[in-house]
Amino acid sequence: MNSWYDAAVRALKLRHAIDEFVDHELVEYHQKVARYERRSTADASPPEIPPLLRDQLSSDDWDIIAAYVDLLKPMKDLSLIHI
Length: 83
What we know:
Number of helices: 4
Shape: rod-shaped
Mean pLDDT: 91
Helix content: over 70%
Distance between the termini: 20 Å
């Protein structure tokens, strides 16, 4: 359980970088599509959308991750108490 908490906290800290990376991939994909459309031939297949873009995190997803952090923090704190 602590590993889920730690991963969620880390993801929230890296949210800006993660979103920028996804945005960069999206721009690259759109550039590939534009090149394909300019040079389109019958035998060429369109560029495939990268899996990353199919699985990108929405604003609601980020809110859920933040909620998980809030829910798991007390358990993480309890696990660190030495009795």
